[in-house]
Amino acid sequence: MGLAGRKIAITGAARGLGAALAIVAADQGMTPLLLGRNRARLSEVADAIAERTGKQPDCLRCDLADPASVADVAGCIAAEHGDLDILVNSGSQWTGGAFEALTDEQIAAMVDSTVTGTMALTRRLLPVLRARPQADIHTVVSMSGLPYARMRGSSVAFVAAKAGQSGFVQALTEELIGTNVRVTSVYPGIIEDVSPVEEAWSSERGADDMLSDRNVVEAILYILSQPPNVAIRSLVIERARTEFLS
């Protein structure tokens, strides 16, 4: 399935992987909706897209840890973007450090943004996606959500939240089998943030280098570009000289 002309909503689009995906998606002729907590950063990403494509994407403030914010943005999309084809769940809060040093509020924010907020937004947008001829729900989980992967700097709360998100993806995949909505996911390892607007984006990486946003963005778009009869349900992507599995 070609990607040009499809409308894609991306959470966590204000920075990092979500921002990089939005920019590259626009470069490939898609229409991105930028969802994130920070309006100023969303506007910066939108301006970068407009400079490259001549089209200014819509920015929608969405705090996945706030049920009211999730409800508001879902209502806006349902009312104004009924042609939404793809939802990419990329947004998630992260905090490292020892478990006993985390506050209850930090733990709740990670779980709410990664699991509860992602599930709530997906549920509210499912009728919009079900109304399309062909639609996708894609979730950026993490190798931290795999039962056999090591923590490698993540916090206990983040690992637990990502495990919950992984369970959600697996269950939703089963429930939506046979419908017009394809459910897929990617499980990246540690990523070095590189933006498509930076020269480093085009630099080739060697076997000793970390994953970059470019590696993961290309993997996501490859998954989404598959024809309707193909579903790459999950893809684990890690640097060749792995850190998570040893």
Task: Give the overall shape, derived from the CA principal axes.
Answer: globular
Order of helices and strands: EHEHEHEHEHEEEHE
> What is the name of the CATH class?
Alpha Beta
The average pLDDT score comes to 93
Number of strands: 9
Determine the N-to-C terminus distance: 37 Å
Question: What fraction of the residues are assigned to beta strands by DSSP?
Answer: 15-25%
Helix content: 40-55%
Structural class by helix and strand composition: alpha/beta
**Main beta sheet: strand number and arrangement?**
7 strands, parallel
Total of DSSP H or I helical runs spanning 4+ residues: 6
Largest beta sheet: what is the strand line-up? 3-2-1-4-5-6-9
InterPro entries: NAD(P)-bd_dom_sf, SDR_fam
Family: Belongs to the short-chain dehydrogenases/reductases (SDR) family.
Protein name: NADP-dependent 3-hydroxy acid dehydrogenase
Pfam families: adh_short
Could you provide a short overview of the structure?
With 246 residues, the chain is an alpha/beta fold. Helices cover 41% and strands 17% of the residues.
